[in-house]
Write a structure and sequence with these properties.
Elements lengths: L9 H22 L5 H29 L5 H4 L17 H27 L7 H27 L16 H4 L3 H32 L5 H7 L7 E2 L2 E2 L4
Antiparallel strand pairs: 1-2
């Protein structure tokens, strides 16, 4: 008799999606090496960010439900040293670099939430599975954004960012109550950030069709109509 598995919680549903993504994303990346590579990577990143935004909302719901009494109050308390949800930068390339750097910071914060929750949740907890899946998704999205940046501007590093990095020393001083507050703050901000990333990539997708030289120069802040005989003239 065939056994049918039902995913009865958002966290377990997230784990199933991550398992699929783990096998599918490398194939998608291979396909992006031919044809309009930049457009392909951007399309993949946009789809992944949309999925991650939905799953981040489900993960936050699972987190709140697993924290015991008064858990709904944890998310209302402020926490410092968490990356901002807003994307900064004056142009598309700067904003993409900010997205890439902030994804790396959220990966560190979610990893810390995962480790802290291991001490608070039973083994095999759906929350732990969801947190681990979220880390994998952040890594995949960061890799896609990095690949896009390398096509658009290969000579600029992807790391530089003005956001405050994660400080491991802060974790040692947190008690259980503070850990619960911290986890909710991280996942709430992560959800909001992903929503902004999804919109950012959708907006960029409108500008990019095949990422040809005209598009790349435009995204770098150079008007291709003002390029004459290898000399870039001012737009003012």
């Amino acid at each position: 008799m065939a056994v049918q598995l039902e995913w009865r919680s958002p966290a377990l549903a997230l784990l199933s999606v991550v398992m699929v993504l783990t096998s599918v994303l490398p194939l998608m990346a291979e396909g992006c090496r031919t044809g309009a590579e930049c457009s392909c990577i951007l399309h993949r990143s946009t789809r992944l960010s949309r999925l991650m935004t939905k799953q981040a909302e489900d993960l936050l719901t699972t987190y709140i439900a697993s924290q015991g009494d008064f858990s709904d109050l944890f998310c209302k308390l402020p926490v410092n040293d968490i990356p901002r949800a807003e994307i900064s930068g004056r142009g598309s390339l700067e904003r993409l670099r900010n997205v890439h750097a902030t994804l790396g910071q959220f990966q560190q914060h979610i990893a810390m939430v995962t480790e802290e929750q291991r001490n608070l949740q039973a083994p095999g907890s759906p929350l732990l599975a969801g947190l681990e899946g979220a880390q994998a998704q952040v890594t995949n999205l960061a890799a896609s954004v990095a690949a896009l940046l390398q096509i658009l501007h290969p000579n600029i590093p992807t790391e530089a960012d003005g956001s405050r990095p994660y400080d491991p020393a802060l974790a040692a001083a947190r008690n259980v109550f503070q850990q619960k507050i911290y986890g909710c703050a991280v996942l709430s901000r992560h959800r909001d950030f992903l929503s902004n990333v999804q919109q950012e990539l959708k907006d960029l997708k409108v500008k990019v069709q095949e990422c040809g030289s005209r598009t790349v120069r435009s995204l770098r802040g150079i008007d291709p109509r003002r390029v004459r005989r290898g000399v870039v003239t001012s737009g003012h």
